[in-house]
Amino acid sequence: MTNIDNLNSLSDLLNSVPEGTTADILASDLEAGNFDTAHLVMPDGTALDVTYTGPVAEGYVSPFETMDEEE
User: Fold this and answer.
1) Taking the model in full, what pTM does it have?
2) pLDDT at residue 60 in the model
3) Largest CA distance in the chain
4) Residue 7: exposed, middle, or buried by beta-carbon count in 10 A (0-12, 13-18, 19+)?
5) What is the strand order of the sheet 37-41 is part of?
6) Is residue 32 within 8 Å of residue 60, measured between CB atoms?
7) pLDDT score, position 68
8) Beta strands at 2-4 and 47-52: parallel, antiparallel or unpaired
9) How far is it, in rounded angstroms, from Cα 68 to Cα 31?
């Protein structure tokens, strides 16, 4: 498991994973740090669990939050 506590380190990690990597959360939430734990799977099948304890990107609103407001 990889533990990250700031957006710069999270961005560095995400930039280092190969293209085609999948995650079990929305990409926008992942990039903004709007999660506690994400499970990434690389194209070769290698898995990586990432925990994030830092702040969410300033001004970020999850698409799920905006859908709730529209209903």
Assistant:
1) 0.84
2) 94
3) 40
4) middle
5) 2-4, 47-52, 37-41, 22-23
6) yes
7) 53
8) parallel
9) 21
- What's the pLDDT score for residue 10? 98
| Beta carbons of 52 and 59 less than 8 angstroms apart | no
Q: Where are the domains of the chain?
A: 2-70
CB atoms within 10 A of CB 4: 19
Alpha helices (H) along the chain: 7-16, 27-32, 63-70
- At residue 38's C-alpha, the angle toward residues 37 and 40, to 5°, is 150
Which residues, given as ranges, of the chain have pLDDT below 50?
none
3-state helix, strand, coil in the chain (%, to 5): 35, 25, 45
| Closest-CA residue to 61 (of 27, 32, 25) | 32
User: Looking at residue 67, what is its pLDDT?
Assistant: 58
